[in-house]
Amino acid sequence: MRDEAYDRIRQAIVDGTLAPGTPLRDGDLAEQLGLSKAPVREALRRLADDGLVDSKPQSYTRVSDVMSRDVIDARQIVRVLHEFAVREAAARCRPADIAAMRAANDRFAEAIEARDIAAAVRADDELHDVPVRLAGNAAVAATLDRYTPLLRRLEHARFSSTLAWNSVERHTHLIDALEKHDTETAVSVISTIWTDLLEDR
């Protein structure tokens, strides 16, 4: 039940159902989710650790700002780790890996066209997971799992705007570079993708 409360509250924060600054009261949330207060309290503590919730004992618990210090720090870590993954993966990419990335980018474009942001995020994850998997570094994968959720609200905002089509194009450039085993170009493109997630807002 703790995991259910965590997943549902986190998703509501990420997709904007719970907007930045929204007060979070464990009793109200428990009633809305059909859960007891205990798992909701635990979920809020975990979300505070994740940087998605701001909490001050005996004062407030609320949804954190989209552009908090935690988000800026997470973007930097995520960018560097994706650069590392792409650098490691560039020499290892095989035709099947390239095909998987192109298929994911096609699904991403279709989701953007349909304004299905949840599907766009899933397709984006599938695309970027290929070089992360090829890099074969468990610590990198685990750290990305830890920090990427902090950036979801930025992704939702970007993928619901015309800027999403820039992402389709950059994905294509990344895939083309990996197909050619052009490491430096691939690293440059992935760096731009994650830098612009913050700067294009």
Describe the protein.
- Keywords: DNA-binding, Transcription, Transcription regulation.
- The chain is mostly helical and 201 residues long.
- It folds into two domains: 1-64, Orthogonal Bundle (Arc Repressor Mutant, subunit A), CATH 1.10.10.10; 67-194, Up-down Bundle (Four Helix Bundle (Hemerythrin (Met), subunit A)).
- It is built from ten helices and two strands; from the N terminus they run αααββααααααα.
- Strand 1 and strand 2 (60-63) form a beta hairpin.
- The two termini are 36 Å apart.
- The relative contact order is 0.13.
- The model has no long low-confidence stretch (mean pLDDT 91).
Record keyword descriptors for this entry.
single chain, mainly alpha, Arc Repressor Mutant, subunit A, Four Helix Bundle (Hemerythrin (Met), subunit A)
- The percent range for strand residues is under 5%
Give the number of domains: 2
Number of continuous helical runs: 10
Q: Indicate the overall shape.
A: elongated
The overall pLDDT average reads 91
Please give the CATH class of the largest domain.
Answer: Mainly Alpha
Named at the architecture level, the CATH assignment of the largest domain is: Up-down Bundle
Helix and strand sequence: HHHEEHHHHHHH
Poorly predicted parts: none
Please state the CA-atom Rg, rounded to the nearest Å. 18 Å
- Portion of residues in helices? over 70%
Count every beta strand, where a strand is a DSSP E run of 2 or more residues.
2
- Largest sheet, order of strands side by side? 1-2
Instruction: For the record, give the distance between the C-alpha atoms at the N and C termini, rounded to a whole number.
Output: 36 Å
Classify the secondary structure makeup into a structural class: mainly alpha
User: Biggest β-sheet: count, sense, barrel?
Assistant: 2 strands, antiparallel
What's the name of the CATH homologous superfamily of the largest domain?
GntR ligand-binding domain-like
Under CATH, the topology of the largest domain can be stated as Four Helix Bundle (Hemerythrin (Met), subunit A)
Protein name: GntR family transcriptional regulator
GO molecular function, one term: DNA-binding transcription factor activity
Keywords: DNA-binding, Transcription, Transcription regulation
Domain HTH gntR-type: 1-66
